Amino acid sequence: MDSDGSGVKSAERALTILELFSRPNCALTFTQVAEVLGYPRSSLHGLLRTLTDRGWLRLDPRTRRFSLGLRAWEAGQSYRPIATLIEATRPEIEQLRSSVDGTVHVAVLDGGDSVCVVPGSRRVAAHTTGAGRVLLAQLDRSQLEQRLDGVLHAAGALTDVESLHRTLDLVREQDWAEADGEHAGGVSSLAVPLRDRSGSVVAALGVAAPVPRLETHHRDQALQALRAAAERLTPRLELPPA
Asked: Among the three residues 73, 90, 111, which one is the final residue of a domain in this structure?
């Protein structure tokens, strides 16, 4: 590491670039990357070239757009806790898809975000979804406010910290959560915790659907199905340490 800290700065910039390209369907030209990140063009050229040479990014020779490379996919596949979680939940997910009228998903908490790992990979603010609220409810007050510092501002979402605490108190009491349109207008979500044999919550199991599909009667049916699936999954959720 350089004594003046430039090594740390370069590492931070490289990681920021990878995080930028981790957004869904992200493909950007050099000029677009420079405009988004505001890095000096000389250093950005070097960073993009290095990341491309090492396989973390790829450059389409026709469009001259950068996107994530194969090395990023390989690294993701090596993260065993998520791979194990996906493998363990797959049979129940398939069964739920045939009995629940909505998109069935499994999510984990990363900072203040809920990351949907089944299906695909999608990151949203945790306090805006049922699955995210299930996961946030496992934190104490100080942990919660630290993770959500500066993010409680999404349009239509719970923006008052005290209101969020009251909502999460209810989630803990009833052991399930719901959200109505906070993340996506007209879409409701329900979720229950997924626990391992020790009783620790390792993920959330949820379903999302247009609001009319999850109104009272259908909501109760979906919630019952989610709870039954979560109970069946508990013996299988012996995840390796992260």
From this structure: 73
Q: How far apart are the first and last CA of the chain?
A: 27
**pLDDT one-digit tens code per residue, 85-98:** 989 999 999 999 88
Domain that holds residue 158: 79-236
- Of 73, 105, 120, the last residue of a domain is 73
Coil, strand, or helix at residue 56? Answer: coil
Largest CA distance in the chain: 64
Residue 48 lies in a domain: yes
Tell me the whole-structure pTM to 2 decimals.
Answer: 0.77
Say whether pLDDT at 144 is over 60: yes
What is the tens place of the pLDDT at every residue in 27-71?
999 999 999 999 999 999 999 999 999 999 999 999 999 999 999
* Residues 6+ positions from 197 with CB-CB distance below 8 Å: 234, 235, 237, 238
Q: How many Cβ atoms sit within 10 Å of the Cβ of residue 220?
A: 12
Q: Is 65 exposed, middle or buried (0-12, 13-18, 19+ CB in 10 A)?
A: middle
**Whether residue 115 sits in one domain with residue 16:** no
